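Q: What structure does this chain adopt?
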Amino acid sequence: MSKTFNQTELAKYDGQAGQPAYVAVDGVVYDVTGVAAWAGGKHHGNLAGQELTDIIDTKSPHGRGVLKKLTVVGQYVAD
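A:
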């Protein structure tokens, strides 16, 4: 069964202090822990543990295509 994350829960997965690094895009939570570009939970000024739909749609050079390579770990539901 898929885990559901709200903003508070997702924020715990920031890639810091040994935590996994998760990001949410369009209601889906992805694991970016093993992605070199997300080392330390940071990627081009963006932080893991956040909802990044607007960022990936408006600022990301690769767009949503890169998401296909990631593991889905749950659903994101806004508070």
